[in-house]
Amino acid sequence: MNLRSLLMFGLLGVWAGPAVAALSPLEDLGEQLFFDTQLSSPPGQSCSSCHDPDAAFTDPRRARPTSPGVLPGRFGNRNSPTAMYAAFSPPFYFNTAEGTYRGGLFLDGRVPNLETQAQKPLLNPLEMANPDPASVVEKVRNASYAPLFEQVFGTDVWADTEQAYASIAAAIAAFERTSTFAPFSSKYDAYLAGKAKLSPAEERGLTLFEDPGKGNCAACHPSQRSADGKPPLFTDFSYDNIGVPRNLNNPFYALPADLNPQGGYFVDVGLGQAIGDRTQNGKFKVPTLRNIQLTAPYMHNGYFSSLSTVVDFYNKRDAKPGCASLFMPDDLAERQNCWPAPEVTENVNRQELGNLKLNANEVSDLLAFLGTLTDGYGGTECLLDWFEAQYPNLLFPPGAQSQSWPPYRYRHYSITQSYVGVSASDSQVYYLGNEGGLISVGDSTAWLAMADCKQ
Ligand code: HEC
Ligand code: HEC
Asked: What does the longest C-alpha to C-alpha distance in the chain come to?
């Protein structure tokens, strides 16, 4: 059977539809709390304002390095990290074998778990700015989902304010533990499961990412399944000072003295401050790299505006001269071929990063690999990958890129070069013969099922 007849008459699998786990009442409640903009004081800000699902649960307002609070003119001092995969951080502890701290939540590990974490932003004057737990409890009591709250925690839940407040946080934490925050649905996950092939550039990027003599990224951002078969989280939850420069664009510097006593001299020492141990100054928790393409700007202070400047920094921090100014933004520093001094000079890791000697092709391969970590891989892109993997020689020249010609996406269809290809729109899959013309070979849903691609 040739490809064309296979495409036209091939066996189509039965598609049961994507598996969407129903939320428990506790998780459902947590979801409503997470998105409720009435929970700030004044109303207007929810958890999702800074952790938006459309931006991989980070702040979608990318122009500023840190997020505005609900009160005008207020800003936090740190870049809003993704809340995705945060549930996997172990409670904060000291790993005696390796002599490193690990785990905890927030970038300095100062709280042990999601339940404690969720209590903080509601009362933080730079964030949701409620004066006390009682005022938050009162808001929940008047919310449309108050009956659900009583169903989950009991009708006498309001009697004890402290208990009610902890229950609010517990529900949010339960929502943060659902698969919404940990879908493990990237192209890289499909690759690890043997369901997708990486492009040659992505494959080379993965090798560089893991090679201790090259990128060495996996030393802190592990990329392989754990011994018990769990998918990699791209963080080992350890702490390091990688020498990120100060970010003078951080609006926190300009806050009044009651909110930022040090003004322009503020230095974020991270873990050192959280545990009251100056020997740990400058260290921050290793973040996950899942969905990294969606979460700019980068690092605890949002200094880096793009992944390419991040990689240049890892590659050449110690190979380029220091910038004349300590306060140079990343794009300008890159143009001037320098990197500013670290914000905290103690503990800067010079063994594992800073002078990787990667050439321009290697840098672009590494960036291509980072692009495979975005969740939600599926649909047409996945289908085209599948076709390419199924019919490598017949259909696609090596490294064929998919192209868009709305409403189709296709790989290498060129009448003049007589490639044969496959094209897919939202609803139909077409066969592209070298005689030209599109022939529908059936409905996309069935093909997506056959290729085991999510819709
Ligand atoms: C105004 C912006 C803002 C709001 C609103 C906000 N956050 Fe955050 N979130 C941040 C910032 C900034 C950090 C990092 C702070 C730090 O490390 O000190 C953070 C950290 C976190 C973390 C820890 C991630 C990690 O890897 O350690 C979680 C989880 C989280 N937030 C969940 C929530 C929840 C739940 C709410 C609502 C109750 C919320 N956030 C409201 C900005 C915000
Ligand atoms: C020695 C440990 C270590 C190594 C090796 C390492 N990283 Fe990191 N990475 C970190 C730490 C710690 C941070 C957070 C630093 C901060 O916020 O100040 C980070 C942050 C990042 C971020 C920003 C994430 C975000 O959400 O803001 C990216 C991107 C990144 N690393 C990519 C890489 C790549 C690519 C490599 C290899 C070239 C690499 N890392 C090697 C420890 C490491």
From this structure: 76
Query: At which residue do the structure tokens 């070298």 appear?
Result: 434
357, burial (CB in 10 Å: exposed 0-12, middle 13-18, buried 19+): exposed
How many whole angstroms separate alpha carbon 442 and alpha carbon 451?
Answer: 14
pLDDT in tens, 63-101: 999 999 999 999 999 999 999 999 999 999 999 998 999
Select from 102, 106, 115 the residue to mutate for testing ligand 1; criterion: most ligand atoms less than 8 Å from CB. Answer: 106
CA distances from 132 to 39, 40, 264, 296, 298 (A): 12, 11, 29, 32, 32
Cis status, amide bond into 112, omega within 30 of 0:
no
CATH superfamily of 25-91+105-181: Cytochrome c-like domain (1.10.760.10)
Compute the average pLDDT of residues 140-168.
98
pTM, full prediction: 0.90
Asked if residue 287 has its Cβ within 6 Å of ligand 2, the reply is yes
CATH code matching the domain that covers 187-373, chosen among 1.10.760.10, 1.20.1640.10, 3.30.70.20, 1.10.540.10: 1.10.760.10
Hey, whose CA ends up nearest to atom 3 of ligand 1? 50
- Say whether pLDDT at 398 is over 80: no
Same fold, 25-91+105-181 and 187-373: yes
Distance between CA atoms of 243 and 283, rounded to whole angstroms?
A: 9
Tokens standing for residue 83: 């809340």
Give the ligand at the shortest distance from the Cα of 129: 1
d(Cα 228, Cα 348) in Å, to the nearest integer?
33
